[in-house]
Amino acid sequence: MKIPFLSFELLHSAIRPEMVTAFENFYDSYWYVLGDRLVEFEKLYSEFNQIKHTVGISNGLDAIYIALKTLEIQAGDEVIMPSNTFIATVLAVSYTGATPVFVEPNLETYLLEPTKLEAAITSRTKAIIPVHLYGQACQMDEIGAIANRFGLKVIEDNAQAHGALYRNRMTGTFGDINATSFYPGKNLGALGDAGAITTQDDSLASKAKMLRNYGSQQKYRHDVIGYNMRMDELQATFLSVKLNYLNEWTEKRMEIAKRYREQLISCKSIILPVVHPDATHVYHLFVIRTERRDKLQEFLQENGIGTLIHYPIPPHLQKAYTHLGYVKGDFPIAEELAKTSLSLPIWPGMNFNQVDYISDRIKSFFT
């Protein structure tokens, strides 16, 4: 049996007629940038995410960057983030000239550990970026309380957790201003690059819209130095169609994750994902851990099963960040996760026979 790590075939074939019709309407509209389709998607996503404003951005990295610029983060500032995030979170901070400050995650949930935040705060700290990694919501009430106590801003990185909840509240609604990605492989994925900002704040939304569009609110009038970081009408068109199916696809991801758990709970050589009791997990990724990760990945590949490692090198050990002066051992939890984590296939369209085959191969490896 051949099982890829990710497949769009069944998911996209089921909605192909709607997507083609939507594309034809877009094509015949003769308006391709900052038009009605983007406005409509922003409205629909705001309703889905239970928030006042959505601002369509060119991609997830640009969304984090625009969020930071909207809060006027600049050189000399410090921004706290988890030590085990994807590099985009770190790059966005670097683009502003600010310094990324890493805090270790909880070893069970892999999410930013609130009890470790205070020790990382200095007089230069301006913001915290919690990352809802793999699809599980961070402990946002606890993080928000610390931010409020120290007068810090919060920017959620919600790229992997569309629809996840913390204490029955959506991710992407806790922070002052938040960023997400609609990269094709996300739970809600475009057919190309796209991202968005969400916020309850009218002034922040207005500023983000201005920054994404050359610093302009009125054509050929530029109030600030802005950027060309807009979501295009085509991706907004496709995302509006796919958003109708997101809850259904999330349920399927959860069913697959439940099946994995049922099949692998007896395998004591691996660590299964742990979900915080106050959070939900939408399973952008289903990540197991084992000390024999590399050998297991090789074995699964030999058996036709695709896997990926999220992420093999933590940010503080990346060559691009040697100037920060970190060395191996500075963030042992992030390094442990990088050494032991393996992401298994999980996508809408997978069936239980495939999940069972993967699970059987994993158990056979350890026996």
Describe this structure in words.
With 367 residues, this protein is α/β, with parallel strands linked by helices. It has 2 domains: 9-243, 3-Layer(aba) Sandwich (Aspartate Aminotransferase, domain 2), CATH 3.40.640.10; 246-366, Aspartate Aminotransferase, domain 1 (Alpha-Beta Complex). The protein is built from 12 helices and 13 strands. It has helices at 9-14, 16-27, 36-49, 60-70, 87-96, 140-150, 202-212, 233-243, 246-264, 293-302, 332-340, 352-366; strands spanning 53-57, 78-82, 99-103, 125-128, 153-154, 165-166, 169-170, 178-181, 195-199, 216-218, 221-222, 286-289, 341-344. It has a 4-stranded parallel beta sheet, sandwiched between helices. It has a 3-stranded antiparallel beta sheet with strand order 1-9-8. Strand 2, helix 5 (87-96) and strand 3 (99-103) form a beta-alpha-beta unit. The longest helix is centred in the last third of the chain and has 19 residues, at 246-264. The mean pLDDT is 98.
